Amino acid sequence: MSRPSTAQTGQADDASGDSTQLRGWPRRPQRLATAVAEDLVDRIVGGELPVGGALPIEPVLCEMYAVSRTVVREAVKSLEAMRLVTIQQGLGTTINDAEDWDLLDPVVLAASIRHDAERAILEDLIDVRRALEGHMAGQAALNADEDHMRRLQAALDRLYAEEGDPARFLRADLDFHYAVMAVSGNRLGRAVIQTINTQAFQSLRYIGVPSLADCQDSNVGHRAVFDRIAAKDGQGAAAAMSDHILGSWLRRRPGAHGPAGDRTSGDHPQR
Known about the structure:
Blueprint: E1 6-10, E2 19-23, H1 32-45, H2 58-65, H3 69-81, E3 85-88, E4 92-95, H4 106-114, H5 120-143, H6 146-161, H7 166-184, H8 187-200, H9 204-207, H10 212-230, H11 234-252
Antiparallel strand pairs: 1-2, 3-4
């Protein structure tokens, strides 16, 4: 989101006149409260508004974003729902510790990934995917009937067909994983994975820049998952999916083949 031209801001202490400099934005977006909330989330997660500190008071936010008090109040309520802040009548609004934030909120998760200099969130994401997708692959092995296997086979065939086009392969990759989750019947687990994938897959540091060889290598893992499901091997399917996700990340994560952020052909797009 574009940021405002400079405006004076104050701390969220009704009795204090202390202020800091925060940038406003040059152009007003259409969905004001949503836009204000998203911008504040980015400032909080990025550390511009520090944990434990006070959110600027309403008049300051109104001036900074050129919006009404109603818009600011709605935006701050959104931050409270995301568990980024605590609102106390007469005491102002305090920014909560990062451990309290709702990382399954798409706005919070997206900002956390953007500002994840140490890859902590991406590493956590891989752990969550291994646990949930591995478990769901095991469930899929126990649930799969002939119709399910035909759909999984079609998804796998598409992966092979798209190996030469990384962008189309990535979409087919997601579809295969979602097909496995659908067969598992675990709707909540699938919803959690879809939420985190939607944000993570917008990060180049997460998906890498795959080559033809990378896509072909990725399909070795997909094939292993498919074979274990077809064999009705729940434990084997769970292990194959977990190994596939972890092994892929270890090969493609920033720094695996050079300085952090340097993408090489060794980074794999396995999902």
